[in-house]
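Tokens as discussed.
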């Protein structure tokens, strides 16, 4: 099954063939994050072309399964029903290999995948996002994800997770995300602002 998923993704001609020794590990990720998986589900994030160190950081967060129990926010604290189960099965030595391969692939925008993501104007309060995430969300900073062209539903879900992590009654069971900066920023966002920001970044081109 893994080999089939990898072959199907490669047929699109947009991603490169991984080294033979790494193909099985990478194929496990492509089951959801490869082109067939991305076309099936608009909630799945695009990882192609993301910063290598950011990807390593996030896979490690899913592996370590930290729970914030103190007053301060833990930098690595992320849970997801699928990733929290899959990531611990990865060999730690595979993580840099997978991250480097994904980072080398051409980025994809929402409009490439869904034919949607019409460009909209950045709301005034969104200017602060560009300080870290770059013009139009095209980050060139280590450990900071590119938001440009990312799936709208995924962006919305992440902003809600950052905002609601301090409110357990609102947190979706099995899903949470804490970050020193983003948890604070999320506290300023209501649903309407989250929708506006997700629409803006989804409508940008990643290139």
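Sequence:
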């Amino acid at each position: 099954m893994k080999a089939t998923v990898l072959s199907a993704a490669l047929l699109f001609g947009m991603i490169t063939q991984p080294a033979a020794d790494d193909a099985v590990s990478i194929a496990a990720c492509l089951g959801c994050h490869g082109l067939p998986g991305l076309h099936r589900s608009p909630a799945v994030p695009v990882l192609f072309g993301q910063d290598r160190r950011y990807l390593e950081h996030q896979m490690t967060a899913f592996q370590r399964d930290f729970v914030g129990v103190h007053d301060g926010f833990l930098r690595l604290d992320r849970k997801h029903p699928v990733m929290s189960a899959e990531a611990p099965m990865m060999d730690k030595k595979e993580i840099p290999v997978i991250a480097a391969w994904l980072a080398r692939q051409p980025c994809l925008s929402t409009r490439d995948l869904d034919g949607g993501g019409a460009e909209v104007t950045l709301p005034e309060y969104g200017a602060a996002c560009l300080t870290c995430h770059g013009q139009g969300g095209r980050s060139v900073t280590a450990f900071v994800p590119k938001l440009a062209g990312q799936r709208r539903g995924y962006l919305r879900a992440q902003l809600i997770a950052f905002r609601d992590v301090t409110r357990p009654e609102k947190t979706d069971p099995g899903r949470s995300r804490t970050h020193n900066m983003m948890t604070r920023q999320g506290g300023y966002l209501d649903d309407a602002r989250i929708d506006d920001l997700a629409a803006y970044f989804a409508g940008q081109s990643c290139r």
